[in-house]
Amino acid sequence: MRALLVGLSFSDQKREEIRESIEELKELVRALDGNVLGYILQKKNVPDARFYIGAGKVEEVKQVVEGISADTVIFNAFLSPSQIHNLESTLKVKVLDRADLVLEIFSRRVRSKTAKLQVELAKLELELPRLYGRGRELSRLGGGVGTRGPGEQEAEVRRRWIKKRIQQIRQELEEVKKQRKEQRKKRDRLYRDTKVIKVALVGYTNVGKSSLMRALTGRETFVADMPFATLDTKTSGVYLSKDVKVLVTDTVGFIRDLPHELIESFKATLEELHEADLLLHVVDISDGKWLEKIKVVKKVLAELKADEKPTIYVFNKADKIVEKEEDMELLTEPAFLGERSVIVSVKKGWGMKKLFAAIKEIAQELIEVS
Known about the structure:
Blueprint lengths: L1 E8 L5 H17 L3 E9 L11 H14 L3 E4 L5 H11 L2 E3 L1 H12 L3 H19 L3 H4 L11 H41 L4 E9 L5 H9 L16 E8 L2 E7 L9 H6 L5 H5 L2 E7 L5 H14 L7 E6 L24 E3 L8 H18 L1
Parallel strand pairs: 1-2, 1-3, 3-4, 5-7, 5-8, 8-9, 9-10
Antiparallel strand pairs: 6-7
Helix pairs in contact: 1-4, 4-5, 5-7
């Protein structure tokens, strides 16, 4: 993929915010082994209904695409089906939006059957509205008044298949929900003589959740410095004492502007958030935009109706900004939140005793309440 990135710069946006968004888009392209050749921004207060960017800017993009031999143009936005159709017709190359990019990463990374179904559902729900109006474009043969060309017939066949497949996947995911519910009941029966506290790891993508999962439970997980390195939900347990066990679940990382289709389709997996007694909200303390990213995660949690759980903010990657463990006490970031928080470096093992102590304290509170 040789990609040119395109976006709008709105008057109420700060320059730094725009730069961060473009950099994140670049990381998503690199996660697909794509090559970013450059980017074009247009200052505009309102997106164009036909092309998202202005018609004149589209011609400029076309010239740049031809000049640098790009094969894909990626928009830093969610485009409408008609906008994608109009842009591809004019630019003569593949046009993707932010949703396409994220879903493609997910489709390549997921491993479990459930996650594959969820990604397929999201992609089909994104494709379906894009098929409407495409039939005439696909048809190159003339027909009489009131007749359909082969392209329109082909699009209609595809639409019917997608609708049927969406229904099948939803039924399968409903079965998954039932199975997970039964598994939780069996798990509760298994630990009926043990107090079980369910903990879910949440956070922006690439903040070290999988590394923390491994540090807390000893479970081997894939760890890499890239967006969405791991996508399949995993649960593992660790005993806080002989009669108190914590079940830790790692969930998919979030990003700003996560596609609505993806949030909807992953609700079966993210049900673990509703079952959780405690959230560990993992934050990259070395990221200058950590506070904004906390807001992004909280917004997604609110969409999932899982934003009122007891939460410990785990500020990870402290080793990137201090040289010694004792220097972590000088860091003031947690003071901005006014909530329970712990600073750690999972990589160095710093602060893990304090984190376990914080989990144990809340676990005891939850047990006393129950």
